[in-house]
Amino acid sequence: MTVPPGRRERKKAATRRKIADAALRLFLERGYDAVGIRDVAAEADVAVTTVFSHFASKEALVFEQDEEFGQRLLRAVTDRAPHEPLIPALRNEIGALVRHCTADGTAPIQRMIEASPALREYEEAARLRHAESLATAIAADPDRPRTTTACRTIARFVVDAYALARDADDPEAAVEEIFRMIEAARQATLPSANPTDTAGP
Known about the structure:
Layout (H helix, E strand, L loop, with lengths): L6 H24 L6 H8 L3 H7 L3 H5 L3 H13 L7 H16 L5 H9 L1 H23 L8 H19 L4 H19 L12
Helix pairs in contact: 1-2, 5-6, 5-8, 6-9, 6-10, 7-8, 8-9, 9-10
């Protein structure tokens, strides 16, 4: 059972959220490159050291919910109902994440990320990190593909599905199309799909 966060944890989360909101507001108003950490600290009414105690870099301010993204994918694997297949569980989670990120008001943030080489590089590094964590969770799952390489490949496909569907004209249709391909790839990793297998006498 999940234990509710204590008062200290709630206070830390609220401060983190306040800093991220202040940063995003300034980035969108002035442009990402025109805003410094001191500007963010002043806007959030905290010390510069407080900003860095919550965020390791300026880029991380834009991706405040990045850790939650990764945790949601892991929970889709580890917390799914008994006998719920792996790939549909991940498809449902990616679909929910895509719906959230394509909601009204998110387009300016995505344009800002696409316009900044530093933010694009940070986002790509985060995707690789999430894919490796997801691959580890998949490898420990009873419904896992046959090899470590297959686990890592499926995980990379799942994480990339988020970005591909997010940028599609019809995100929900894109999620379904991509996950049909991911399921086909997973099926190809199962022992019964091995072309070298032969039937017994």
